[in-house]
Each structure stands twice: as structure tokens, then as C-alpha cells.
Amino acid sequence: MTDEQLLGLRFCDLKLRIERTPVARRVRRLYRELDKRQIGFRPHVWLSEEWFSPDGVPGIAVPFYLAHPRLERLERRMMRNVEGGSAESAMRILRHEAGHAIDTAYRLRRRKRWREVFGPASLPYPDTYRARPGSRRYVQHLGEWYAQAHPCEDFAETFAVWLKPNSSWRRTYAQWPAFHKLEFVDDLLSEVRTRRASVRNREVIEPLRENTRTLADHYRRKLRRHSMYRRTVTDHLLERVFAPERLKSESRRAATFLRAHTTNLVNSAMRELDAERYNVEQILRIMVERAEKLGLWVRGSRRDALRHSRWMLVYLTRLYAQGESPTLAL
To answer: What is the pTM of this model?
Structure first.
């Protein structure tokens, strides 16, 4: 089918199943990781529009496009990215969502000590959050300092770091205040993992089989949501360095150029700033995403573009270190 034909289909018409897909293999891998940690509970998994683990339901929704390579290609065309498209990124997200599911299953957030360590789960979720990249009170897992968004995300990110096989968290976070959160999770799961889960319902929220929305409607909504960026210093600087249109036949897209020089740019910024690699990589990732969204092209020589890109990365990383927000965190 063409993309246009696919976009005309309703979700319920896709007849997708998890069995015999990469999703099934990765869910089995998650279960093995839980088993290795002697956690008896297994979150149930189903297909929906997006990644999520709903409140009150100890399970995980996985986006539909991961159940078929043709739909992955459509997702990439529409969104320029496939969240969870590789085995590594899918496992990172599954471990995070498993943290939410385990939290729900054992009602961990109701414990006084959980609230003392992570904060009250009853806090409203913010539409946006201003991250503090230099803070060592939070683990670093999914990216964009997501643990800082909400106490429940802080727990899920900490759980994911703890769950990862052969995780070196004891060494990596030894000097961080976040270390006590990991120790708390380690103690807490040692206490509850052999118990019968308090919440065991297998409800499926927003399943595809009941979804009559078309894929075109889905992507219209998703693109509208992703376009709700404010005009920021990141956009302003990118538009100063790169051109809004292709000036020469041999010109490269700005996002492609930045990706190709990731190692060079990150290492250069780290040397100048004495910054952590994770923080610099996150800033560069934001630059790439915005350059792609703005449709920018390299202008002038490769040498000049590289020099200006290094300066921009250093400048934006310094802004983050000072608590400023060069872009709106989703």
C-alpha cells in the first residue's frame, strides 16, 4: 500500500498482533531481566497509539508501528524518527515503563519512604519542565533529563537503571546524591519481589481493536503536538548558522551534517567545558531535531559550518548548566 492508502486506514482495520514480531522478543527479554532480579510480577503488554503505562493498570502499551516494518517506515516518514525502533532504544523504554507498572502493581508510591525519596506522586504532571542538566540528584536514562519531570518519572528512570543487566550503577553513581535512590530501589524490590502483587488487573487501555481513528488523524494530532515548540534561542542560533534553503547542489542538510560530526562536536565541547558527555549529547540531539524540523541546510564551507556548530553547542550547553532552557522539553 502507498503511504496515502495506509493513512486512510483506521487503527481497528490494521489487525495487528504482537506475536512473532520484534516486540514479542523484546517483551520476553524484559521478562528475563525481571526474572533475573527475582521479580515475579510480569506486566502485560498490548498495542496502542503510543508508549505509556496507565495509572492503576500494571501493564505497558507499545506503539502500533513497532508491530510491522511497513508501519515503521511510515512513522519515520511522518515523524523523522521511530521511538523504540532499535532493540537498544526499545529496551530502554520498556525498562522505564516496567518501572511504572511495578510501582502500580505493588502500590509502591503509597509508602512513606517512597514519598520521602522521590516526592509525592500526587503532584500534577507539568506541561513542560525546566531541567537542571548539572544536577546529580537524578539518574540519566531515557534522555532530556526526564527523571526531573515528575516524582513518578524519577522512580521509573531509577528503576530502569537498576534493572538493566550488568548495570554498573554502584560505580557510575557512587558519588552522586542519586545513589541513595538506587539503593532505596534495590532494598525496596528485595522486600516486595517475592510477594503477590496487590494490583493484578489485566485491563487494556486504548487498544487498537477499539480505535476507529484513522492513521491520518493520529499523525495530524501527533504533528500538532510536536510542533508546539516555542521560538527559542536554539532555533534563533540554528537559523543564524544554517540556511533556510539549499544554496548549492552539493549542500547537505544541517541535521545530517550535525549527525555526521557528532563525535567531533561532542569531544570538542567536552574539552572546552569540562562537561559530562551525557549532557553535551543531549544538547546536540536537540540541535539535530530542531535543525531537521526547521528544514535547514549547510551554508558556506564544511570548516566554517563545523566551527560555528562547535560554538553553538558550547554556548547552549553553558546555558543549560546555568539553568536556562534553550528549548521546550516534551
So the answer is: 0.75
